[in-house]
TrEMBL record:
GO cellular component, one term: plasma membrane
Residue ranges occupied by any MacB-like periplasmic core domain in the UniProt entry: 34-295
Family: Belongs to the ABC-4 integral membrane protein family.
Stated name of the protein: ABC transporter permease
Residue ranges of the TM segments: 32-52, 327-349, 377-398, 418-439
GO MF annotation terms: transmembrane transporter activity
InterPro entries, sorted: ABC3_permease_C, MacB_PCD, Macrolide_Exporter_MacB
Bilayer topology annotation: Multi-pass membrane protein
Cellular localization per UniProt: Cell membrane
Domain ABC3 transporter permease C-terminal: from-to ranges: 327-438
Alphabetical UniProt keywords: Cell membrane, Membrane, Transmembrane, Transmembrane helix
UniProt cross-references to PANTHER family, sorted A to Z: ABC TRANSPORTER PERMEASE PROTEIN (PTHR30572:SF9), MEMBRANE COMPONENT OF TRANSPORTER-RELATED (PTHR30572)
Pfam families: FtsX, MacB_PCD
Length: 459
């Protein structure tokens, strides 16, 4: 009975298998090292491949699906000159007429967009709500700063998603109702609510930045908590209380406008900080938009994309992990290959006597080569299978433990790629063992060790 391979029947194969297993058992530590090195290389290659693939996907395919928004805001260098107790800073604010000019420039270049609005002013505190302060907070009067709180309004939820203070979620109560033009509601931070013992339904009173006699009354509809921390957002490290993002009150643009705060003739801190958020169909349109506005941008202003910037910040940890795993994979491949080749040679090279004696008793080189190859294949293939399984199933937990801050999963294509490449590597290693047998010179059988051994056995 033959198994499809010339000259060797099934019984002979079973004998070769059993001899290979016995040989592995005679050298358990060497066999275990072959298995462990194969396992470690396979596991990290699968995990590292998943991380690199996810990072590439995040920076291309997923990035292209991000909301394409752009804003025209002060550059970092201009922001460094800002003084929270100097109302002349409002001279840098863009007005509706400024935005009309910029919008016309973009339309002239054929850039299509939609837009929404965010607008804010500092407001004065009252007995019903006191701002959060620290020892380092400036003691400048509200006549100088416009107030120790900030009232930030949004026209739509899309505007809130690109909030300069960071994204937030409502943890108590409900969010803002952008469709209700009569609502006088605000959201307060959990820190501010705790300081003032505010709850959902509490009423607060705040004052106009330049007219302390003018006040506005709002109902707390919800309490929020920040879920992101943009680079320029300040917390307890803010010099002025109004710049501490935990002192920001959120309301709708409609409420803001009904209270007369969206004014075009304000002075000092009563001039609203108007931020028009442009939305495009394609991310590439942001570059076209920036190019179209370049000649008309006021000094110190720049075009940026809050959503893209926030997204890129969110995958920084993943990118760092990807670069690290890539380096580790290269080092591991080199060291692993050298270790495996060394172990295979260590198992095959010193066995000249064994090969010679087997040939003297009539065993063919092909049969000996099969045994040597199986001695390499068994532990490396087992290590490969276990390593790929661990790498694939533990990719996401391991990435989390390594602070990837992003989901990482081994795709089916990646797993199959690891299987085929790993299997080819195992075959290549076993071929080295087989070549050792093929390279054995038959003439060595007639040298004294073999002759004496043979003669002794005949006697």
């Amino acid at each position: 009975m033959h198994c499809g391979v010339p000259e060797l029947d099934c019984g002979e194969y079973m004998f070769i298998f059993s001899q290979a297993w016995k040989q592995l058992g005679r050298h358990p530590w060497r066999s275990l090292l072959l298995l462990l090195v194969s396992l470690i290389v396979a596991m990290w290659s699968t995990f590292g491949g998943a991380v690199v693939h996810e990072n590439t996907k995040a920076r291309t395919e997923t990035l292209d699906k991000q909301s394409a928004t752009a804003v025209v805001r002060p550059s970092s260098s201009l922001l460094q000159t800002r003084q929270g107790d100097d109302s002349s800073w409002t001279d840098h604010y863009l007005s509706w007429s400024d935005y009309d000019k910029l919008a016309s420039a973009a339309q002239t270049k054929g850039v299509q967009y939609k837009y929404t609005v965010a607008e804010s002013i500092p407001v004065r505190q009252s007995a019903s709500i006191q701002a959060i302060t620290t020892d380092s907070t400036s003691k400048a009067s509200e006549d100088k700063t416009g107030g120790n709180l900030t009232l930030q309004s949004f026209y739509t939820s899309e505007a809130a998603q690109v909030n300069e203070y960071g994204t937030y979620k409502v943890i108590e109560g409900k969010g803002l109702d952008y469709s209700n033009s009569l609502a006088q509601n605000v959201l307060v931070s959990e820190e501010l609510a705790k300081k003032n013992n505010l709850k959902v339904g509490s009423t607060i009173k705040i004052g106009n930045p330049t007219d302390s006699e003018t006040t506005y009354e709002y109902t707390v509809c919800g309490i929020y908590r920040y879920t992101s921390n943009p680079d320029n957002a300040l917390g307890d490290d803010a010099k002025f209380a109004k710049d501490n993002r935990n002192n920001v009150l959120y309301t709708t643009y409609t409420t803001f406008a009904i209270n007369g705060l969206d004014t075009t003739d304000g002075k000092g801190w009563s001039v609203p900080d108007l931020n028009v958020v442009f939305t495009f169909e394609n991310r590439s349109d942001i570059d076209k938009f920036a190019a179209a506005l370049k000649a008309d941008l006021p000094k110190g202003m720049e075009v940026s994309s809050p959503t893209i910037k926030h997204y890129m910040q969110s995958i920084e940890a993943l990118n760092t992990l990807s670069e690290t795993t890539r380096i580790v994979m290269i080092v591991l491949w080199i060291c692993g290959a050298l270790a495996l080749i060394g172990l295979v040679l260590l198992a095959a090279l010193p066995r000249s006597n064994e090969i010679g004696m087997a040939l003297l008793v009539g065993v063919s080189k092909g049969r000996i080569a099969w045994q040597f190859m199986l001695e390499t294949l068994f532990p490396t293939l087992i290590g490969l299978a276990i390593g790929i399984t661990i790498g694939a199933t533990c990719a996401n937990p391991l990435a989390g433990a390594l602070n990837a801050q992003h989901s990482v999963h081994a795709t089916g294509g990646l797993i199959w790629q690891a299987i085929w490449i790993g299997a080819l590597a195992c075959i290549a290693l076993s071929a080295i063992a087989g070549i050792r047998v093929a390279a054995f010179r038959t003439m060595r059988m007639f040298q004294s060790p073999y002759i004496s051994d043979s003669a002794t056995s005949e006697e």
